[in-house]
Amino acid sequence: MNKFQFLVALTASFGGLLFGYEVGVMNVVLVMDAFRIFFKFHSWNGNALDENGKETTDKAKMMYRKLEEAGNKATLEGIITSSFVLGALCGALMATYLGEKYGRQRTIMIGACIFTCGAVIQGLSARSWVMIAIGRLITGLSIGCNGVLCPTYISEVAPAKIRGTLSSCYQLMTTFGIIVAAIINSIVWYYTNSSPAGLGVTRSDIWAEVANFEWRFALLFQVVPGLGLAILMSFLPKSPRWLCSKDRDEEAVEVLAKLNATSTSDELVQSELKAIQEDVAATRAAGSSSFGELFSPVIRRRTFITFLMQLFQQWTGINVIMYYQSQIYDEIGFSKFMSTVVLPIINNFVNFVSTFPGMWGIERLGRKTLLVVGSLMMMVFHVSTWACSTQTNNGKVWQYLAVASVFLFVFSFAWTWGPVPWVYQAEVFPLRVRVKGSAVGTVSNFLNNWIIAFVGPALMKAWSTKTFLLFAAACLLAWVYSQFYVIECKGLSIDEMDAKMAGKA
Q1: Which of 159, 303, 340, 369 could form an S-S bond across to 294 if both were Cys, CB 3.0 to 4.6 Å?
Q2: Which residues contact 409 (CB under 8 A, 6 or more apart)?
Q3: What are residue 49's DSSP bridge partners?
Q4: What does the DSSP 8-state code read for residue 69?
Q5: Left, alpha or beta for 334 (phi > 0: left; psi -120 to 50: alpha)?
Q6: Which residues, 6 or more positions from 70, have their beta carbon under 8 angstroms from its beta carbon?
Q7: What are phi and psi of 42, to 5 degrees?
Q8: 137, 135, 106: which is closest to 123 by C-alpha?
Q9: CB 191 within 8 A of CB 217
Q10: What is the mean pLDDT of each run of 10 residues along the chain (505 residues)?
């Protein structure tokens, strides 16, 4: 592993940073007063709350606006949040064509530019949920492309023995993006939502806008990582496997030499080139690939494993927590400041730090072991979150125990089910169907993510913290799937993996 290989993998994994920022920013934006009033989730007649969230008429104690929830709030919130994931679903399908025609590197650049356009539309949105939903759908197109191609690109430039570790950089940057969004936008929320002008003054129009800087800034800031990724990717090489598949072997050998910090005549470079050429030749001999091939006797088991792995990843409930965590903490009984600033930052930091054990364990413990252990841990902490939340009226200690269970769930997810599905889908398929196979996994991820994002607000409104029991049941099913159906592929080359999977198709 040399510095250039690491730089290539790190830069490509910045696609995860875009995903993470988009997830993290919405948790805070959804609880910004100006956003809620602008899109008519809530109205405000001028009444105020104190720092503990209790209504007050004492001007010395007034701290926050007292908003009144509209009847369609849960539906509109679900539509705006989930439109991003619907776009990601479409983007994953686009990546299959673009990745094969234009290459992994160039398509990631295109995706970053699409993300930037979507961010501008969101930040400049008119007073209609339709425009911001379209903007989020467009940014989702980018995330769908990058979700397929970034891990694939990394796996094709990384040495086999550390392929899993480097591929999990995508998940690491996703968690980093979430914590960056939480810190930046929590600071913005605090300075714009604490002691705002007009508290205690009766408003003639309860739907009248207030200053919208806070949420427009939060959404427009996405332009920075979007342009950054596009620029950085322009300096990276094309995938040597893709170059060989396009009969550009001379370019491929130069890339391999650069990745290995040696000359084109080096034995290691020639050996890797020969292996890639043989793989490409075998692929051509078998004819062009189709999605139907993913369900052939040799491939179908890994297709079903990949699809179900991404399905269960979403039904662990991770994105209900990441999208709506401030509202969950508020439901448990914490103050606005704790729910919006302190606890999300702590939780997102736990999510980020916990990714590092996964990068270590994914090669030493194996993919399957992490899935089995993680599903059991998540199930336990979901149940404990629900149990503690039912006792919050008996003292603050139960509130802190409930939120501690949420943090422990996030820890359990971040080092197991967070990175493993992305690493697994990027490495189990042979070259001829690799992009299509990875797309199936990513489509499964975003399809189920969309369902979760859309129904999440309604579930929390109807079931409150009982929703955690639903996710605990899903984690139990995920354990059964991991224990009895998943095939371990730790440390295997692509050829060895083909042999192992073919024997268990």
Answers
A1: 303
A2: 317, 321, 377, 378, 381, 382, 385
A3: 55, 64
A4: E
A5: beta
A6: 40, 41, 42, 43
A7: -140, 160
A8: 135
A9: no
A10: 76 85 89 95 95 91 94 90 90 83 90 94 94 96 86 77 70 86 92 93 94 95 93 89 90 88 88 87 73 86 94 95 91 92 94 88 89 98 97 93 97 93 84 81 88 90 92 98 89 71 57
Q: How far is CA 12 from the centre of its chain?
A: 15
| Cα–Cα distance, 367 to 364 (Å, whole number) | 9
Length of the chain (residues): 505
How far apart are alpha carbons 189 and 181 in whole angstroms?
A: 12
Burial of 448 (0-12, 13-18, 19+ CB in 10 A): buried
Give the C-alpha separation, 504 to 483, whole Å: 15
**Residue 440: alpha-carbon gap to chain centroid:** 16
pLDDT for residue 502: 66
Q: Which of 120, 92, 90, 82 is nearest to 15 (CA)?
A: 92
Residue pair 44/33 in contact (Cβ under 8 Å)? The answer is yes
Q: Which residue has the tokens 């207030």?
A: 210
What are the angstrom distances between the C-alpha of 347 and each of 128, 334, 363, 383, 501?
Answer: 32, 14, 26, 18, 38
Tell me how far apart the alpha carbons of residues 310 and 313 are, in angstroms, rounded to a whole number. 5
Please count the other Cβ atoms lying within 10 Å of the Cβ belonging to residue 38: 22
Beta partners for residue 64, in sequence order: 49
pTM: 0.82
Q: Specify the pLDDT at position 505.
A: 40
What was the pLDDT predicted at 44? 96
Compute how many other C-beta atoms are within 10 angstroms of the C-beta atom of residue 470: 15
Residue 95 three-state SS: helix
The SS3 call for residue 55 is strand
- Quickly list DSSP for 129-169: HHHHHHHHHHHHHHHHHHHHHHHHHHHHHS-GGGHHHHHTH
